[in-house]
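Rotation project, supervised by the postdoc (A.L.). Task for the rotation student: set up a whole-complex structure prediction and record inputs and outputs verbatim in this book. Inputs entered:
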Amino acid sequence: MVERITGIPRDQATKAWDAFTSIRANGDMKKVGSIIYAVGWTHHSSGTQTIRTAAMIQLLLGNVGRAGGGVNALRGHSNIQGATDMAGIFDSLPGYLKMPVPADVDLKAYLTRITPKASKPNEWDSFNYWSHTPAFAVSLLKAMYGSAAVKQNDFAFNWLPKIDRTYSWIDIWDGMYTGKIKGMMAFGMNGVMIGPNSNKNINALKKAEFLVVCDIYPEETSEFWRAPGTTAEEMKKIGTTVYRLPGAGFAEKDGTFVNSARWLQWKYAAVPPPGDCKLDQEILARIFMKVREKYQKDGGKFPAPILNVSWSYANPNNPSLAEVAKELNGKAVMEVTDEASKTTIKAGQQLPGFAFLRDDGSTMSGNWIYCGSWTEAGALTQRRGTEDPSGLGVYPNWAWSWPMNRRVLYNRASCDLNGRPWDMRRKQVWWDEAQGKWLGNDVPDFKADSAPKDHMGPFIMNPEGVGRLFVPLGAVADGPFPEHYEPTEGPVINPLHPGQSTNPLAKRFKTDMDKYGTVAGGFNIICTTYRLVEHYHYWTKNNPMNVQLVPEPFVEIPVELAEQLGVRGGEKVKVTSIRASYIANAMVTRRIKPMTVDGKKTFQIGIPIHWGFRGIAEDAGKTSLNLVNALTPTVIDPNANTPEFKGFLVKLEKA
Amino acid sequence: MSERKMLQIQKISGHPGPVPGKGTQREQKLCKLIDTTTCIGCKACEVACVEWNDMPFQTTTFDDTYQTMPDTNWNYWNLIKFNETSNPDGSFQWLMRKHQCMHCAEPGCLAACPADGAIVQYQNGVVDFEQESCIGCQFCVSGCPFNVPKFNPETKKVYKCTLCSDRVGQGLEPACIKACPTGCLHFGTKEDMLMLAEKRAKQLRDISGFRNAGVYDPQNIGGTTVIYVLHDAGNPEKYAGLPSTPRIPISFTVWKDWFKPAGLIGSVMVFAGLILHYVTAGPRRTQPQPPIKEVDGDAPRKEN
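Outputs recorded:
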């Protein structure tokens, strides 16, 4: 069945599975296997289920909590982890606190809803660390509203926005296209290029009242109004006001990048921004100060959340990122004492860690998971110690990783039931009976004094304390167990259950520009999109060095398909999905082979995403000025709301 | 250049008499190890080379391959060559080989060069071109078994990888080594690198199933300062025409090893060398710009 669905010959699939699972041959627990994936795994209408499957395999093999194990995402940007930690997504607050919803009438209702209760399976005890949610949430409110957040006003809980629906990336563009969203501020986000269904995004911007773009290059989003094919007549009818702000590049800014291993690494500005260009924080602060000024002068429907924001920076028009980083770590508002360590932190001092956070307003912290990164000892994110005493690659003094400088999460799982490391030669943490606590080469990710005989589960963030093979409480929208679904535009009917071929919960959109192709409709080739190592998204098409490395857009085509169509390498081909066409050079290759899927010979082609209608090759007239993401469908995974960039249907012809 | 004074010269092109200062100080032989089996073809080394050596950009065009350009150039000394290979068992391999000057122990370029001091070999193994002494005759181009030196028609000089002798002279690693994100590039003494390479080749043979894995360090030219680990050391040609047995055209070895010791000097010498070269080797590889597709397997990627 796997061979029928995936097209991977049975013997090859078995060989790969056998190799991976061989680490546990004869019950040996010493070896560790890692699953490393590029985010393409998530670019499917059931992407979350794929990642879940990887997590389940690692749990079953005992590869979680161990150095060299885990499920590791290779992210597409240097700071995606930081963006997620800091709530760069619509449904969370910093530190993965859940976003309030209209039903959360007050702080108590909100905290009751979002604080999980321990649910202990028979013989296991559960730490349920999220039980401290009230301390994290109140400390966040104190960071946001300072002295205006007091017990009497629920620590200003009702000043937080409450979300009533999904505001994911594609929903935003759909909302703009259907007239529900009036404008957009795009900082370093080339939304037209990112897609999916770029032409819908271009048309959405035509309907917007305003668009603010902060980028360092002239790019497709701020120039949507002159996308190829737009006539002069059409341009006159576009009423969108476009503002371009003079942004700064990454090497002109300081601050932290957070990598996939959760290290917060401080970086210094290499050069100042040129000319009138400004740092992001100055641009945002100036906009905020103006908005607040207007509220002060004119009032408004709901001025309190704007007027009471804590904004105590040395220069309110240009906060330093050091000030912001210290605020994220948090400090004591009143004196606090940690009973376990008998440590007292005086009012005004930086907090040494989130164990000090309180739900009574005596502490503030902009992001509880970053608490401990900038203490009274200074910015731990700036550390560059290269010593590795254990030889395990822990490097405890290089930068700082959340939570509390732990380098491997759930590292209690690197030991057996008795707290003895599975591999005595590579000890991460262990139970020390004499001292009555956990010790380690890494910081133990566990209740420090919980003896193994107490049977506390290692997965301290789950209310059950154990790993989740079965996901309870509807935490995953499309079911407690993963299931195979074909892409929304799939080449075959799902052989597992033809009656429900695709993910029933994948979200499709309904405007006139949201169309979905079928094989019966003539779209008989699978298309996928990807990035090249030589280019960085939609920026480096402006950099001569990267352009020299890979100068022009192309479509990778299997030799067999090229022969069938009479296409030779270097000739132009036209790729057409139900939404748009794309013309570029053919790269004929043996790297992409035809597959036999459900008994049918099936071709796949691949297109790198980097070229648009502005850039060195584009401006020199060397490309067809079309966008790859004009081809891709508006359909999203029901959990992460990630678009299905990695599998859709097209037809291919000589251009 | 002051930093180059820290390097001890071993051989000089077209130079009468002994090498100045020879034997005063013994330097370790250096070595760059390229493990083709862990190269991902990201070209970070190409970028590092262009940037460190401050070379002007050139326009490239799409050529049905990931390879940046058909061959190295006077302003592009380091090129990943991409090769799609089908194995006898039907499996597929995408081979990537970082192509650059090999810094041979017996450098064909140096043997061929008639200009005093235009090509020097340091005791640490680096073979360097001194453009101020270059007369633009391009004999080095013909003398190289790896098709490395490239002529700049504007300056009338020949250029190639210097093994970053300016960095190495200051105790730094070459720029490409520093840029490599996978660690497939290593730099150290020849002895250490050979040991590392053999260890890796053994691992490939014993564990990874590459029975013919081995180290490329051709002995007929005395070994090279740049060595490779190959999945298939028995067939280096499939890595974009890496020669199993690199040969320096006989005209140059004859010139260097027979006629010169015999005391023939000056213009007669050059003339004889020229004639011999044309008689024995023909006009092979004397073009300043190499042809885009060559028949000897140097052309990028596919076998059709």
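Student's summary: Chain B touches chain A at residues 40-43, 46-47, 50-51, 57-66, 68, 84, 86, 92, 94, 302 (CB under 8 Å).
Supervisor addendum: Helices of chain B lie at 44-52, 108-112, 139-143, 165-168, 175-179, 190-206, 250-259, 266-280.
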